[in-house]
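Structure first, sequence second, as always.
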């Protein structure tokens, strides 16, 4: 894919991210190709792959609302999405090529993991995507075919297996801003990520020749999983240009962005102290002198009504803004693509489904504790809400205690708690859980069904239309519809 690789070399030499958004824009002079050390490329790819990309999920998952205009994500009206992640894949492949050239094969395992993560994001967004021909070099394939989503998932799992096989724990890694070269932690992340991918496929008995539940159990039995928050797949931020928290100084956070009632009311109902780290008290509550830990000091807007209706709550001083730390603190908290807490909820769901032996309640409680511990560490000045005593009070409530019961009852409780760990974390994961299971229960506009995917970028219609149309015909009877049902949901 000549156009892809030409751009890759130009991008990686400068170690900058170009402003283009789609594959047809990636075209530079191949004569500028130079060699470099893989660690220089690793830092850039890790920062891009692990950073908070946007807050679309917060709108779609009914966590925040907009009051000065109509958010397409809040009202579930989004359309197409770009192929930016291919740009990151090309940099990842270049890093791996340089690792092979220089004999620094310890970087290959990280490359395989990053490719799996980036391809996972792409296929979850669109369905069928270019995969097997997407990173072919030197003009071999200019117009890549679209692989079926099932084939892409097989490929993702194979990339993760390659990551496991090529990981050399005695190696030395430079430029690693995630684990500072700690390859044992990388091994835990790789194995845990396999479980995340397999749980995504809970509607399937097999993917390719892989038995989903059996493979999940085999990985779990090895016991090489995230063990605490130190193992989180996360990136920390520092107060310097290019490395600050992505929403630092966001004008929207400081003005027109408010909390959704769906999210606020759930936390009020559960008397969940995480409310105090996510949201500000209403202006009215501040005027009345209500304490920060008074649940009545918080209120959210309805994500389904016209935005002007929520503006009335602003005028009456009866709606909570997003906590100021999210836009005033340049370092704030880490951004996590896979946390210890999320893994515990994945394991709880696996027990409920009968995939593994164990105690679902035990994993469920570990997930809650793991997230309380996370905010005790990262929510500066708010650790008093996440002590052992506070955790015990919270988990002993009748609405929080694990109820057991049939699968639907268990999924509702597990995924409701998983929802509460996802504010500004883990990309679209919780929205995909909603599509997959119906939980957490998200309020929708009357007569509206939830979108299940994004339309392909318009540039693909211009440069790779034949292959794109074949993919659309195969998946959605030719229509590029945001409510088309991709293979993983069937």
């Amino acid at each position: 894919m000549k156009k892809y690789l030409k751009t890759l070399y130009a991008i990686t030499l400068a170690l900058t991210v170009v402003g283009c958004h789609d594959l047809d824009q990636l075209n530079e002079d191949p004569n500028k190709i130079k060699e470099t050390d893989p660690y220089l490329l690793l830092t850039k790819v890790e920062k891009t792959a692990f950073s908070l990309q946007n807050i679309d999920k917060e709108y779609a998952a009914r966590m925040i609302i907009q009051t000065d205009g109509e958010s397409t994500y809040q009202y579930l009206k989004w359309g197409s999405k770009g192929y930016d992640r291919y740009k990151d894949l090309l940099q990842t492949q270049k890093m791996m090529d340089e690792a092979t050239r220089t004999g620094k094969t310890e970087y290959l395992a990280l490359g395989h993991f990053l490719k799996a993560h980036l391809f996972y994001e792409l296929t979850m967004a669109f369905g069928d995507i270019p995969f097997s021909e997407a990173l072919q070099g030197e003009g071999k394939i200019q117009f890549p075919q679209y692989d079926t989503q099932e084939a892409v998932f097989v490929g993702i799992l194979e990339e993760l297996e390659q990551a496991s096989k090529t990981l050399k724990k005695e190696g030395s890694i430079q430029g690693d801003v995630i684990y500072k070269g700690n390859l044992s932690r990388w091994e835990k992340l790789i194995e845990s990520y396999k479980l995340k991918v397999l749980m995504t496929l809970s509607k399937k008995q097999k993917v390719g020749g892989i038995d989903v539940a059996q493979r999940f159990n085999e990985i779990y039995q090895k016991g090489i999983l995230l063990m605490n928050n130190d193992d989180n797949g996360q990136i920390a931020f520092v107060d310097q240009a290019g490395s600050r928290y992505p929403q630092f100084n966001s004008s929207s956070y400081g003005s027109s962005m408010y909390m959704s009632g769906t999210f606020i009311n759930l936390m009020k109902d559960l008397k969940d102290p995480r409310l105090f780290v996510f949201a500000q008290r209403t202006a009215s509550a501040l005027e009345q002198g209500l304490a920060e830990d008074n649940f009545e000091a918080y209120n959210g807007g309805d994500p389904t009504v016209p935005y002007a209706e929520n503006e009335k709550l602003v005028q009456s001083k009866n709606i909570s803004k997003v906590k100021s730390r999210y836009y005033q603190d340049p370092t704030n908290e880490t951004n996590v693509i896979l946390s210890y807490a999320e893994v515990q909820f994945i394991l709880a769901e696996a027990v409920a489904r009968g995939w593994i032996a164990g105690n679902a309640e035990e994993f469920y409680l570990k997930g809650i504790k793991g997230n309380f511990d996370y905010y005790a560490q990262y929510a500066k000045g708010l650790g008093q809400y996440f002590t052992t005593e506070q955790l015990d009070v919270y988990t002993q409530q009748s609405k929080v205690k694990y109820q057991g019961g049939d699968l639907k009852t268990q999924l509702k409780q597990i995924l409701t708690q998983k929802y509460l760990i996802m504010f500004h974390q883990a990309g679209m994961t919780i929205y995909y859980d909603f599509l997959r299971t119906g939980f957490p229960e998200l309020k929708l506009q009357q007569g509206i069904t939830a979108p299940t995917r994004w339309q392909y970028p318009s540039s693909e219609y211009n440069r790779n239309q034949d292959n794109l149309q074949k993919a659309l015909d195969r998946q959605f009877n030719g229509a590029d519809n945001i409510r088309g049902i991709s293979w993983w949901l069937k």
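Margin note: Residues 1-33 have pLDDT under 50 and may be disordered.
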